[in-house]
Amino acid sequence: MATLHLMVGLPCSGKTTLAQKLEQEQSALRLTSDEWQISLFGQDAEEREHDARHTLIEAMLWNVASRALALGTNVILDFGFWAREEREDYRSRAKTLGAGSEVHFLDVPTEELMRRLAIRNAQPSPTSFIIPEAMMKPWIALFQKPTPDELERRD
Question: Which CATH architecture has domain 3-151?
Answer without folding.
Answer: 3-Layer(aba) Sandwich (3.40)
